[in-house]
Amino acid sequence: MGRPSLAAALLVLGVGLLALLAVERAPEIRERASGALGEGMPAREAALARGFVLGEDEGIDAATEEDFRRSGLAHLLAVSGQNVALLALLAMPVLAAFGLPLRTRLIWVLGLIAVYVPLAGAGPSIQRAGVMGALNVLALLAGRRASRFHALAVAAIVTLAIDPRIAAAVGWQLSFAALLGILLLAAPLREAIGRRIGDGGWRRAVAEGAAMTVAATVATAPLIAFHFGEMSTTTLVANLLALPAVAPAMWLGMLAAAAAQVPGFPVEMVNAANAPLLAYIAQVAEWCGRPSWASVEVSLGPGGLAASYGLIAVVAVAIRQRRIADGPVASAIWTPAARRQKVLTVALALAAFAVLWPAGGGADGVVGPPPAGLRVSVLDVGQGDAILLQPAGGDAVLVDTGPPGAGLLTELRDAGVGRLGAVVLTHDQSDHAGGLAELAGAIAVERVVYGFIGSRTLSIATAVAPVRRVAAGGEVRSGALRLEALWPPASLTVPGDDPNQTALVLLLRWRDFTMLLSADAEAEATPLDPGQLDVLKVAHHGSEDAGLGGLLERTRPPVAVVSVGDDNPYGHPTAATLATLAAHGVRTWRTDRDGTVVLEVRRGSFEVAAEG
Predict the structure, then answer these.
(1) Could you tell me the residue ranges of all domains in the chain?
(2) Where are the alpha helices (DSSP H) in 229-361?
């Protein structure tokens, strides 16, 4: 390519300004796209389209989400590098149809990537994919062949520079593991498949897709087993069956999201073509996720994780050497360039292994996230509420922040928390929201979710992270963790005189474990029937509650936790509340006497311990 012309330079500037404008207006663009993806499609398919294109999984029903998880297709519900690759593949022929030269097309693709990353939520995998895509486009603009290994290394450096704590995010780990597996294993797998089915026309596309699927599955399997304590036995079959429909569904979803920015565009036509594809993918997830044997429990500790990736690295290097030795340029195996390539391959494998090694503990007694299951910590923050939820395979979630000056940051660091997927504020009182300001600039927070809060607390929340209001029927998710809002009703648009009675009441679900987080909303004012519970977080620090007995009869929890301050002036928990709990045979833990109360949840069981 020749030297860039003034017109090309101006185009770069124009695309850059357009990208900056789109980044600034990303919430509005995202909202329009989200609305368009629901027009003219059944509810299930509309929710899947939002998940595929925007990473919005809140509307996906529990059964469908479980099918995708058990079948190994859950990666489709989160925006990833696949989206960026498909965006570029879609944009290039469309731009070519307008007669644009290659350089101009590449510049436009660069701008589209810059727009799409914040539009899709700027999650760990999309950050990596955006950096990777931009590096490849820049390499093409410079007239050189892009080095995918070099781009991967730079993507790791850039995303870690943006947020060093992102390495603890399972999505980031899985994204890099999948891409590294594809870089190391996809080519020999494609050749092997091609030798058996042929390598021309559609056969080549099948071999390419199958090879990438197998490579990514092999590379991510140890991490999935380590973090989630289970593995899908059908993931390879499910991904291969879904493969023909995934790219068209992504493309049509992106087209609908883009068309939504044009007033009056009939996006229903695009969605009508997309709905059958999404329905087919959901059907594959159901076929491969519903059998009892579709998912098996696997116990893989740090040693097993190390051994697994060590074996994958050794096999990858051996296959690469064999391919070179058997090829027409076998002598190239001894060239300096080939030796550097092998050294780079091994170094990348070892680097990935080091990065992906999750900390099971640390100095000064710091405890990392659970390798499997769910950890619920009702933190000892005095007379207030702060409940930390750490699901394996998902970002930690904090429900309420306790009063100001209660040492919240110390508690989070001691729990090994480097980032929070969400902070949920149940209501706007100092003992529940007073510690929020301490999080600003001190810890990465993806979003702040609230029910009713005042303008002052809202301004603090917006300084911490993007905000979202929820009411009954809304959800917060992180990995397999689901927090369903049961109260207050969505029809209630303003809080009443007593903010306690309009506090968010959340039903925590993780696998078959349930816990009611009732904030300060006493049962006598919030008539709820959440079904049988495993644990009850007693409302309002154990204040007198005439409706508690009825709630216990309906839910029959064996364990209750009271978050309360030592020698508080309110007499919490009251003798009447403790007597009601005892009369129903509920074993009760209290933060004023027991300190932080920790629940370690596994599939089918949970244990309670006190750290005080």
Answers:
(1) 11-164+268-293, 370-610
(2) 235-259, 267-289, 302-326, 336-356
Beta bridge partners of 535: 515, 559
Predicted confidence band at 163 (pLDDT cuts at 50, 70, 90)?
low
Tokens of 318: 């051996």
Record the pTM.
0.66
Closest CA to 307 of 183, 217, 221, 372: 221
pLDDT in tens, 488-534: 988 876 776 778 888 999 999 998 899 999 999 888 888 888 999 99
Written as one string, the DSSP assignment of 374-413 is: EEEEE---SSS--EEEEETTS-EEEE---STTS-HHHHHH
260-266: Cβ within 8 A, 24+ apart: 260/32, 260/33, 260/35, 260/36, 260/37, 261/29, 261/32, 261/33
Q: Which residues of 111-148 are buried (b: 16+ CB within 10 A; e: fewer)?
A: bbbbbbbbbbbbbbbbbbbbbbbbbbbebbbeeeeeeb
Question: How confident is the model over 426-450, as pLDDT tens digits?
Answer: 999 999 999 999 998 888 898 899 9
Instruction: Provide the CA 577 distance to its chain's centre, in angstroms.
Output: 39
Q: Tell me the CATH number for domain 370-610.
A: 3.60.15.10
Q: In angstroms, rounded to a whole number, what is the distance separating the alpha carbons of residues 457 and 428?
A: 7
